[in-house]
Amino acid sequence: MSSFVLSGCNRSLSATAGAEELRELAHGPPIDFLHINAVQAICSVLIDFGIDPNRLFEQDGISTLFLDGTEVISFASLGRLTALGAHCSQCPHFGLLVGQRTTLASLGLLGVLMRNSETIGDALRALEAHHGLMNRGAVVGVSIDSTLAIVSYSLYQPDAEGVALHCERALAAMTNVLRAFCGADWAPDEVLLPRSQPPDTTPYRDFFHAHIRFEEEIAALVFPARLLKHPIEGANPVARKVVERRIQQLEAVIPADVTDELRRRLRATMTQKPLSAQQVARMMAIHRRTLSRRLKSEGTSFRLVANETRLGIAKQLLADTTLSLAQISATLEFSEPAAFTHAFRRWTGTTPSAWRKENQAQEKS
């Protein structure tokens, strides 16, 4: 099984992919997928700990799909596998170690596009725009707040497992990508992690070389906005255009899923400024009634997806941080903690405090 998983290639993301490969891709991966390089990194870390990956695959019931020669894994499976890896290795920074294995080259065609972007800002915006080609289950955001740039990573699949581990993996990976452009000594000003502070923070300080803020509402790298204008040495504009066209071809044949697109857009802004149905429809260049009709055909509605997104964030912050109910309530734009508790009880049948206590008990067992 180990050799099977580690044999994944990147044919469907290669610049030479042909028409037959595009037709194969049109059958579509699961909506919540990541490319298998994430599993390859986990295998590498497990082997370093002397743990046989096969054992974890069996425990997880992990399954892979072949997408035109490229293996992909569902977000749910990767979350369980990462959590199992952290448990078996007894390593609280397991996600960090996995993320450190990511390089610009491991991003496949997207990495080639970023490498040939004109500036670092262009490269990060390419990652933001095309991240779904590699990873359908999380969203990358690039924003500017005065003199600071904020690159965030958020999971939007409902009931995703191992969210805190996913987040630190992603931030470590993005740090490696930025160091590929800026030099091995580059460091962000701050790293924000939506997880409780582990007993030993040394591994985080040693890797990021930055101030680490735990117990945050979002996962993000913060650095001077002026870096976004920094040119990328050796960028090839001809290669950029060729790769961009190939990426657009690949994205064009991935089956549309309005619910997935809505989840992605809502999650990207939920902890900043929640979007209305009218705003989302405008962003998607469709009429509000068209959005409602398409969501209805997929068995859901704007309100259901919005509530599902808020619940997912609430559960993650309750499970992975020690933020108070008042802080979580404010993050999710509830008028007061009582309103949050009422909504949470309506969604789950229990209170946030009771849910947190039960989840902590399950984690310990």
From TrEMBL:
GO cellular component, one term: cytosol
Keywords: DNA-binding, Transcription, Transcription regulation
Record bears the keyword Transcription: yes
InterPro entries the record matches: AraC-type_N, Homeodomain-like_sf, HTH_AraC
Highest taxon above the source species: Bacteria
Gene Ontology MF annotations: DNA-binding transcription factor activity; transcription cis-regulatory region binding
Signal sequence coordinates: none
PANTHER family, A to Z: HTH-TYPE TRANSCRIPTIONAL REGULATOR GADX
Name assigned to this protein: Transcriptional regulator, AraC family
Organism, scientific name: Methylobacterium nodulans (strain LMG 21967 / CNCM I-2342 / ORS 2060)
